[in-house]
């Protein structure tokens, strides 16, 4: 019998080599993990240790994390292409592969980092959670304080193009009397804000936190604006009606009457007696409820299951891209931006492929795919059900929003409707797609509140 444990035997050599490789791989894995979780922000700490103080923040991502990101993208194991010629099975393979190719070879995160660091950014702790925000004060007198909230799958990246038009309106042909002091926070669990470690950080608590934030910044009166989840938070703020809140502007209004919501839930055809606008809205909502809400259902019920969002950049990107508008999924503007050209005659407007990559890369670098998804789990009401808000409300209806809210429904949902306008172009990502038009809508919608 041969002695397979002899130092010179082939079996022994194989064992030693495998063991050495395993130890080395383990060490490299731990090193990579440590680098991936290293700090990507620089925060000025207050001398007295008061975490509720307003602390300046700058972004600097270690190069090792960007190298790791590109490596992971290139190592993606791809599935076969879809068996259909449209997007009815999900984000098409060709779209994601083109996106991934650009992400791993041509995309420059440092350009986004520079844009972020060019703006005043801060952190402050509210109810035990760090809240990140951009705060830009206008140079013009009598500016209205305005807090603007992003949505999902967005982030503060969505709002970067509206900062200057809203704080410096005269540079865009608008009046100095329409200027704003702008506050743009990252939702809890998003971007550079803290990740909640306990339950409760849903729209209601966030709405109250925004009031704390604005008062902490010295604003005794202010307005609020939002689309998507930001619109949800605005609606909740409107319903809570704190005395400091002058009014709200929403580009994602919650107007669906109870009888319409009941018919949609039952899968019924449009009720009789609807106007043309109401019927169109019903058809858009019916299509969205039947075909385009799977992501919201998963995040609203089982967000922790989405481990791929933390492990694979391509899994994260495809999940975030799979958000529809009033007609198609993925949204027409997103698809056109990814390919860098109009797709099916639809323009991306001002939205570019790098804009979309800035947003998704922020999710990846902060590892917030799952913590952001939990915001849906923390939300316990229908986002589109009639808001029942009595404070002054302005509503802008963009043609490619998930649905075009009819004026009749809007007046029932918002009992003090001070502005309603159906805009000519733009969609679900209006601030991204049409920043100048979006800024004009915010100015017009909130103008009457300046006399209060």
From TrEMBL:
Highest rank taxon of the organism: Bacteria
GO terms classed as biological process: epoxide metabolic process
Keyword Oxidoreductase: no
MF terms in GO: epoxide hydrolase activity
Annotated InterPro entries: AB_hydrolase_fold, Epox_hydrolase-like, Epoxide_hydro_N, Epoxide_hydrolase, TAT_signal
All residue ranges annotated as the Epoxide hydrolase N-terminal domain in the record: 54-158
Active site: 228 (nucleophile), 376 (proton donor), 428 (proton acceptor)
Signal peptide segment: 1-34
UniProt entry keywords in alphabetical sequence: Aromatic hydrocarbons catabolism, Hydrolase, Signal
Entry keyword Zinc-finger: no
Record family assignment: Belongs to the peptidase S33 family.
Protein name: Pimeloyl-ACP methyl ester carboxylesterase
Classification lineage: Bacteria, Pseudomonadati, Pseudomonadota, Betaproteobacteria, Burkholderiales
